Amino acid sequence: MHHYIDVHHHIIPPFYRIALEKQFGVNAKGFTQLPQWPTGGVKIPEWTWDDSEKTMAKHSIRSALTSISAPGVYFGDVKFAKNMARQCNEYAAEMSRTNPTKYGAFATLPLPDIHAALEELRYVFDVLKMDGIVLLSNYDQMHLGNSHFNPLYEALNERKAKVFIHPTAPTFCCSDMHHLPLTLFEFVCDTSRSVIHLLTAGVFDQFPNIHFIIPHAGGVIPYLAGRFKLYEKFLAPSAFQNTPKGVDHYLKRLFYDTAMATSPSTLRCLTDYVSCEQIVMGTDSPFVSDEGIRAVFDSFNGCDFISSDQKEMIRYKNLERLFPKFAKRHS
Description:
12 helices; eight-stranded parallel β-sheet; two-stranded antiparallel ribbon; 44% helix; alpha/beta
C-alpha cells in the first residue's frame, strides 16, 4: 500500500473558528461573514485533531505539515492578529512536539505588521521549534513581492526557512463574477500573481536560501512559464531585470504541491516543466472531503507518464528531504 506525507494539511482550532464567528457574525447560510468575502462569506468547518487522525489513517497519510488556511489572522486589528497567531502557533506546535514524526507545523505570522511578524518569527523558530511558516498570497492590498516584506525575507533567508504560500481572497476581482466561489479559480490566480510578483521583484534572486512551496501545482505558473521567457527575452526585458539567472532558474527551484491538482492534464503540464524532485503531495484537508482526497490520490496514482520511482518521490521522499525529521521514522 502506498503512503504519503501531506504538505497541505489545514487545522482549524476551535478557538479560532469561534473568534471569527464572534467578531464577524454568521450569515443565514451558516457562513462567517469575513471582510475578504463580502458577498457570501466563507464556511469554516468544525474540526478536531481526531478528524485529522481519521483522515490520515483512512488515506495512508503517515505524516502531515499543518497550517492555518485563509483567511489567516489579520483583519485590520494588529493586536487581534498577534494574539490569534500566538494561540494558533502554540496549538499546532504542541501536537508537533508530541508526535514529531507524524506532525510538522507551519507557523502563522501577524502580517502585514513587520515588527510583530519578526517577533513572532523568532518565537516560533527559537522557542516552539516549528518547521516553517505559511504566507498568504496577499496582505492588506500587498502581494508578496512588495518590498514591505523584505525584512521578513532577510530573516527567513538567514534561517534557510521553509515557506508555504497559501492563496487568499484577491485584492481585486471582476464584480460580475462574485457569484462564483473564490476557491474555484481566484485562489489559484492569486497564488500565481504572488509568484510572478516574487519573481519579478527579485525576491527569489535576493533570498536564495528560502525554500518556497507553492500550492495547487503552482496555479498557472507552469502553463505561463514559456510566455514569461518570451517577455524576458523579446517583449519586455525590463520587467525581468531582477531575474539575472533567467526565469527557468528561479521557477524550477520552487516546490509545487499537488493539492486539488492531480488531473492528468495538470500533472503533465507541471511535470513537463519541473523535475519530479520539486513536486510534493498535498490534500487541502479538511476543506477537501475524504471522497475528494481519494479521487485526488487515485488520479495521481493512475498517471502513466510518471514512473513508479517518481511517484515515490512525490508521495513522501521529497518531503523527507525537505523535512528530515520525517525520514527518521523509516531510518
